[in-house]
Amino acid sequence: MAMKIRLARGGSKKRPFYRIVAADSRMPRDGRFLEKLGTYNPLLPKDSEERVKMDVERIQYWLGQGAQATDRVARMLEAAGVVAKSERSNPNKAVPGKKAQERAKEKADKAAAAADAGEE
After folding, report:
1. Which residues contact 120 (CB under 8 A, 6 or more apart)?
2. Which CATH number characterizes residue 72's domain?
């Protein structure tokens, strides 16, 4: 059974509240889970202690059983000092989209054409 430690969304529309849960990866996001491990309230200030609450012992137990933390939960665990900070590499993140690249190319072509016309 592939286990995940992930967020399950609760709360009403535009008022999110998340539970940190240990769940089978095949279950839906807000569906069945095995154990509630903590809570996350993104509406609270970042320096608030109530923003992220975790049962660290149970999280370490599930990690020891082979559960994988999702990216967002892994970041919370890194901030809490539960797991070592991992290197993330997304080289495509800073690359502009296709349309932005096309606009930049057109702008460069126009500038080159204007420079050629100015020389003659």
Report:
1. none
2. 3.30.1320.10
